[in-house]
Amino acid sequence: MSALASTFSTLGDRLRGLMARRQRGTASVGTGGVDVPVRDWVSTSAGQPTRILGFDLTLVFVVLCLMSLGLLMVYSASIALPDSPRFAKYSPMHFFVRQSFFMVLGLLGGWLTVMVPVNVWERHAPKIFVVALVLLVIVLIPHVGKGVNGARRWLPLGVMNFQPSELAKLGIAMYAANYMVRKMEVKENFFQAVWPMACALAFVGVLLLAEPDMGAFMVIAAIAMGILFLGGVNGRMFFLSVAVLIGAFVLMITFSDFRRERIFAYLNPWDEKYAQGKAYQLTHSLIAFGRGEFFGQGLGSSLEKLHYLPEAHTDFLLAVIGEELGFIGVALVIFAFFWLSRRLFHIGRQAVALDRVFAGLYAQGIGIWMGGQAFINMGVNLGALPTKGLTLPLMSYGGSATVLNCVALAIVLRIDIENRQLMRGGRA
């Protein structure tokens, strides 16, 4: 018995030693006890890049579910639009076919994007931001940018209308992450760390407000300020910058008649003065949620989409979901976006822990983008926030948003793939 106990004790010691070396990325092979790297995910030849095997399947699944549900609800919300004189030339399947095309384009773009190493995006981040700024200028040129309902936000490309503000969201996430990496040594100095980014953000704001597109500017400002905060800028400087930004938004609302009227309509949407005017969308959105109750009226059974609720397939898609799928459907969508945002932040924290600061800040910036824009859109639909023209990410109808959402998330997926490779002892 003593011999058996001694044998088990020796085996235990050797196993503990093996596990310790494995955690360091090495293991003892053969009788000579030579330590070699452990790569249990794939064997590679010398000089060959590591093959991609591990990635977040749940993240991909949740994104695909949101996009699929969005496609279904866009079809449901837009099927009756040809009855209106404005859309008389369209078929009932028009928006469904177009959104299907945008989804295929987005998924193809995402697949190509995930093949590009993150360091390539880091190297070209300032250039991408500059391209976004140039396009924001071009869209304001008369007879070049396309105007709809008094707003000039699109560049006609034939197969689709491109919205530069969507590229600006991706560009600001990349640029702010790259900027914080370059300014890490002086992040406590206001004029060296915060002031240049504030000037860039102000320039973007001027261009977006000229369109006008205050909703996109709010999202871009949230992304930039969030990355600055996560990057570790001085707390007092950060809160001072936030106070200045909030003050700017208050002034914009105060000196703009139509924005001020929107605030008053939001505060009292059922007033006769606003119910048929500035609060028309909000009141019909609330009616849609009220009709949905707990389980909904059933898929395709919405009444508000029958020319009562404007922009039902874009800004107010959640209201149609609430009416047809009820509280259960809305709660599932909210939970999916909460999980998605949380997962993006988790991937970002993992990257920072692996000393990949650009990748980590970028992933968290995309988390702010998806979570923040979804929060604003849901708040507007539910009457918790003033009406703003912001779509629901991954779900609402729109080519630029769908494609660039897929590209942005594909880069985060690539970050997760490289994180996993590094944690297994390989190379990103």
Helix content: 55-70%
Range of strand content: under 5%
Q: Average pLDDT across residues? A: 85
| Mass-distribution shape | globular
Number of strands: 5
GO molecular function: lipid-linked peptidoglycan transporter activity; peptidoglycan glycosyltransferase activity
EC number: 2.4.99.28
Transmembrane segments: 57-81, 101-121, 128-145, 165-181, 193-210, 216-233, 238-256, 316-340, 361-382, 394-415
Function: Peptidoglycan polymerase that is essential for cell division.
Molecular structure report:
Peptidoglycan polymerase that is essential for cell division. It comes from Roseateles depolymerans. Its EC number is 2.4.99.28. This is Probable peptidoglycan glycosyltransferase FtsW. Pathway: Cell wall biogenesis; peptidoglycan biosynthesis. This protein is mainly alpha-helical and 428 residues long. It has one domain. Helix content is 65%, strand content 4%. The protein has 14 helices and five strands. The protein has helices spanning 2-23, 57-78, 94-113, 118-138, 164-182, 190-210, 214-230, 235-254, 257-267, 272-275, 280-292, 317-353, 357-382, 399-423, and strands at 26-29, 34-37, 146-148, 151-156, 161-162. The strands form two sheets. A three-stranded antiparallel beta sheet has the order 3-4-5, with no helix packed on it. Strand 3 (146-148) and strand 4 (151-156) form a beta hairpin. It starts with a helix and ends in a 5-residue tail after the last helix. Mean pLDDT is 85; it is low at 1-5 and 18-52.
